[in-house]
Amino acid sequence: MCVQSQISLWQGLSMSLRFGNWRDSRMAIVTSYFDASGGSDQIVVASAAVIASPEIWEEFDRRWNSCLAAFDVSALHMKEFAHSNGEFEKWKWDEPKRRRFLNGLLWIIEDLIEFTSVCSVYIDDYRYADKYFQLSESMRPYTLGSLTCASRIVMWAAEHGHDIDDLIWVFEKGDQDQSDLRKHWDLVYPDANVSPIFCKKRDIYPNKDKCRHIRPFEAADLIAFEHLQIHRLLDKNQGEVLYVDQLRHPIQRMRNWPSAKDWHTHDVASLEKLCTHWNVQPR
Question: What is each CA distance from 66 to 183, 216, 222, in whole angstroms?
Fold first, then answer.
């Protein structure tokens, strides 16, 4: 992607939602991972967001594209990477190359992303709380995870002097229960001047003549996928002690990020507290 294409993408996304100095905005890119081997077998919904200014996203695109090109890869798809499928098929037994690739991408995130927000919703715990509260009628797991990420971003923005109207929200299009998120967004943020937009990872928005990768989705995808993996490991261990050296290398690195202290998990206790706070009716 040429520099002008990068600029037009982030200027276009910014100006389509907020008139004014687009460089003063902060753009939150949000995606979610569903541990869905068969719908009812979900363990967790992991939502992740990465935040930076449109100006920083230009540099992010340039460096992310350069890293992908250095490894002769067109895009990062974590499901393909994890299972050595697609473009990563020949990497299956080349662990040093796999680690160099992810390290390169993680360095870009660490150098440029201003804030990350992650929320994991345990599905079994959600269903347990739903037995006693009308939780499923109130909010779906995807919406709960996404709005929890959003609330952390709003608090971060306030701490750094950014008004909520300076936030631009871009969600990956096609995630499960997205209509539920649309419905609840205006209820949670009725006074916000901007609404979220939904784009595919490779999208024609805002220029219908150009289809391009929205690279920050790949960064959020990486973070959300690693959280999905750690919750799978916790589920597999069934309460046994989990040591740091048992974790995948990327999550070991992520847990040291400053924003990691704001990552959140919704379990039974958290969900019951939320139901009481939101006045969700009991069954």
Answer: 39, 14, 17
Predicted pLDDT at 132? 95
Q: Where are the beta strands (DSSP E) in the chain?
A: 26-34, 44-52, 115-122, 167-172, 197-199, 202-203, 212-213, 264-266
Q: What is the predicted pLDDT for the residue at 195? A: 77
Q: Is residue 29 part of a domain?
A: yes
Rounded Cα distance, 277 and 273, in Å: 6
Q: Can you tell me whether residue 248 is helix, strand or coil?
A: coil
Q: Which residues contact 75 (CB under 8 A, 6 or more apart)?
A: 68, 201, 202, 213, 218
Domain for residue 11, yes or no?
Answer: yes
pTM: 0.87
The span from the CA of 43 to the CA of 36, in Å, is: 8
**Distance between alpha carbon 212 and the CA centroid of its chain, in Å?**
19
* Total domains present in the chain: 1
127 located within any domain? no
